[in-house]
Amino acid sequence: MGFAAKKTEKKYSYADYLEWEDNQRWEIIKGDVYDMSPSPLRKHQFISIELSWQIKNFLKANKRPCEAYHAPFDIRFPESVKNDEEIIDVVQPDIVVICDYSKLDRRGCHGAPDFIIEILSPYTAHKDHNIKRDLYEKNKVKEYWIIDPSNKIVTVYILDEKNRYEKPMIHSKQGKLKVAALEGLEIDFDDIFSASVFE
User: Fold this and answer.
1) What residues contact 85, with CB distance under 8 A and at least 6 apart?
2) Is pLDDT at 146 greater than 70 in this prediction?
3) Of 30, 112, 142, 193, which residue is most buried, by most CB within 10 angstroms?
4) Torsion angle of the four alpha carbons 1, 69, 109, 7, in this order, in degrees rounded to the nearest 10
5) How far apart are CA 80 and CA 73, in angstroms?
6) What burial letters (b/e) apply to 8-37, b meaning 16+ CB within 10 Å?
7) In sequence order, which residues have a C-beta less than 8 Å from that of residue 192 and are 6 or more positions away?
8) CA-to-CA distance for 64 and 58, rounded, in angstroms?
9) pTM value surpassing 0.85
């Protein structure tokens, strides 16, 4: 999902973003534009589908008032800024869960999702671990996971009572991993990381 930190010199807004061609994917962070091509690798897409399936099944089975989406799905920050020309942070995380329906509109989500997952590619590691981590913390995303398909590692950030991310928890084993932002949800990585796509 993108060339490493490939951005332009000019600053852009969500209003500019809406004028761009639909067949290209971009993100804007602090007004900087990031190209999200080429398309993700097979492992990336396999993980995305499997996680989306587990999360959606949990929400439906437990009648949780939340909605889950996978990329491309626009998240605009911050919620307090209403003017498209003034919104300079627009991202498309791999998976998001939103439990506050007031943040959802026809264009996506305006404000912080409760839970965000980014799946690393060689092109996005720096952005996901640093630039997006800071953006999500600033906008109070309750829980942020970064999944490294190559090394089968999950990095977990959880917002503390001071609205700062605690020291990340690094999970390198298969099995089930609890989602703090969605009580009762456990993501089972056994079937994911043992699949033939990882051989």
Assistant:
1) 13, 14, 15
2) yes
3) 112
4) 0
5) 20
6) eeeebbbebbeeeeeeebbbbbeebbbbbe
7) 46, 47, 50, 51
8) 8
9) yes
What DSSP string runs through 97-137? EE--GGGEETTEEES--SEEEEE--TTTHHIIIIIHHHHHH
Domains of the chain with CATH codes: 40-198 (3.90.1570.10)
Q: Which residues contact 147 (CB under 8 A, 6 or more apart)?
A: 47, 117, 118, 119, 120, 153, 154, 155
Q: What is the CA radius of gyration of the chain?
A: 16
Q: Which element (helix H / strand E) includes 41? A: none
Q: At residue 6, does pLDDT exceed 70?
A: no
Q: How many percent of the chain have pLDDT more than 70?
A: 95
Q: 3-class DSSP state for residue 29? A: strand
Q: Supply φ then ψ for residue 148, to 5 degrees.
A: -105, 100
| Cβ neighbourhood burial of 83 (10 Å; 0-12, 13-18, 19+) | exposed
- E strand segments, the chain: 26-29, 32-35, 67-70, 75-77, 89-91, 95-98, 104-105, 108-110, 115-119, 143-148, 153-158, 169-171, 176-178, 186-188
Residues with Cβ within 8 Å of residue 84, at least 6 apart in sequence: 13, 14, 15, 18
